[in-house]
Amino acid sequence: MTEKDIHTMIQSWENIALLVRYIADYPEYIGFIMTKALDDSQPENWRAMWMIDKINEKNPLKIFLMKNQIENQLKVITSI
Prior knowledge:
Layout: H1 3-9, H2 16-25, H3 30-38, H4 45-58, H5 60-64, H6 67-78
């Protein structure tokens, strides 16, 4: 699966559970999902954030390793 495939699949709610399982198994895509979740301009950011929450429930360490990216983006969002 490529980032383009993930981008296409995240558009549909029916695919989200499948994507959560896939990304939990292939953590190299967590950064891509995190970027989508933290990007205010993306209409699917709420789905990406939901996915991050579900991945975090299964394996919190995977998301904890993204702490700096989350903190930096929150600083950008809250400074507007």
